[in-house]
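Design job #97: recover the sequence.
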């Protein structure tokens, strides 16, 4: 593992990111039960309240929690800047996002306007309470790397989609929708997937793949141009959607092309890594590359089918690409955080990162997850089989939650013992680590 470029002294307390990581799979479990208890025919419509609630249980409850947890840890490490009072901000944001997501799910399913309004406020506070301090901190970065530039860009998209999301939720609260509601919803979803999550994944991969997998570094063109080209495509798509809707597919193909190129690059780099040891996280990255290739072009050509297959597009990109990478990151980042923080405190007799998670359970979880994704696509055409794959998804998420908890329990057990070394004797300050 290549640790070059890590700024250990800037790392936040382990509690800041871990609380997000521990919560994320729980929303995966909730989403699975909601799918199990819902009518398959209703879920085939992206605009049904059931689909919206389940989609956001996954996108906010799982994906955003993992992304915010990763940003909490990686921002100071990669950019060399600290978010002031990061643990306090993380605690507050976590509480508001947790209850905001639950309020939204319950409010939409029960058609309870007060809960929907509360969810809009809570989610806004939770997201903006993390996004704004991060953006302010990033302004202090002296050496702006490709990863930092991508993170900044993704957070700008996140800021915009959060404001749009608050407006859309408020519309459901009052039961009144403007003539631009569908356009706003479309922009919100596309910029959330490709602008926030997509660009963030690309930026983090510039550092994560060489660091965790000792894969070849990305070429300068990819690191310097791709984020801007994707951002240009998303803005062009917005303009065409508003003024020349019949030509918006051109911009979609533009965006899809660069995500396909990124997915292909990731797949090839994993094949060329200097330590060709395969584990479940490599499987997740590879499957994500395949799903993004299929999903990006399915999204681009979906207009030719009057948007009939948008649910399949969502499964391929949201589940196959984003969910896969976030699950793979959990398997890497959580054990790494435990090892990193214990090592920084002077503990030497600790399990390796590979020993903290049961490999057989991790592989089982991955297989069940993959079966679920394929099953959800099949269920679009054969609705009667949906409950079966909802169950496999639930089991997969339960195993993932167990695998995330396991390293944290190791940390709690070891931290109660006396470390082998007294780190206070060294001149390097470790106060920022814990």
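Job complete. Output follows.
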């Amino acid at each position: 593992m290549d640790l070059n470029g890590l700024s250990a002294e800037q790392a936040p307390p382990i509690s800041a990111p871990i609380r997000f990581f521990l919560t994320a799979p729980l929303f995966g479990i909730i989403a699975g039960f909601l799918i199990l208890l819902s009518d398959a025919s209703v879920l085939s419509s992206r605009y049904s309240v059931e689909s919206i609630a389940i989609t956001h249980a996954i996108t906010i409850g799982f994906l955003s929690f993992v992304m915010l947890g990763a940003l909490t840890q990686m921002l100071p490490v990669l950019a060399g800047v600290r978010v002031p009072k990061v643990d306090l901000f993380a605690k507050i944001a976590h509480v508001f996002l947790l209850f905001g997501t639950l309020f939204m799910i319950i409010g939409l399913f029960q058609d309870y306007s007060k809960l929907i309004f509360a969810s809009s406020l809570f989610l806004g506070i939770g997201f903006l309470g993390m996004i704004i301090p991060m953006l302010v901190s990033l302004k202090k970065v002296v050496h702006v790397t490709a990863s930092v530039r991508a993170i900044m860009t993704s957070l700008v998209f996140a800021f915009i989609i959060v404001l749009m999301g608050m407006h859309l939720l408020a519309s459901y609260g009052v039961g009144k929708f403007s003539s631009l509601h569908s356009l706003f919803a479309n922009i919100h979803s596309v910029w959330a997937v490709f602008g926030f999550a997509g660009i963030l994944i690309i930026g983090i991969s510039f550092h994560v793949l060489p660091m965790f997998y000792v894969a070849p570094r990305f070429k300068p063109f990819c690191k310097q141009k791709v984020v801007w080209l994707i951002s240009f495509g998303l803005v062009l798509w917005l303009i065409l959607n508003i003024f020349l809707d019949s030509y918006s597919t051109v911009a979609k193909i533009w965006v899809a092309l660069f995500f396909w190129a990124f997915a292909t690059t990731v797949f090839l780099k994993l094949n060329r890594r200097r330590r060709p040891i395969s584990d479940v996280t490599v499987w997740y990255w590879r499957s994500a590359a395949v799903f993004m290739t299929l999903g990006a072009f399915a999204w681009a050509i979906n207009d030719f089918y009057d948007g009939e297959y948008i649910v399949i597009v969502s499964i391929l990109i949201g589940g196959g690409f984003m969910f896969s990478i976030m699950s793979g990151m959990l398997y890497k980042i959580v054990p790494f955080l435990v090892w990193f923080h214990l090592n920084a405190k002077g503990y030497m007799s600790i399990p390796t990162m590979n020993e903290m998670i049961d490999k057989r359970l991790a592989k089982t979880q991955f297989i069940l997850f993959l079966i679920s994704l394929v099953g959800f696509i099949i269920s679009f055409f054969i609705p009667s089989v949906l409950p079966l794959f909802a169950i496999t998804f639930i089991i997969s998420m339960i195993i993932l939650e167990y695998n995330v908890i396991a390293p944290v329990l190791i940390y709690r057990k070891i931290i109660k013992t006396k470390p082998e070394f007294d780190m206070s004797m060294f001149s390097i300050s470790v106060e920022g680590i814990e």
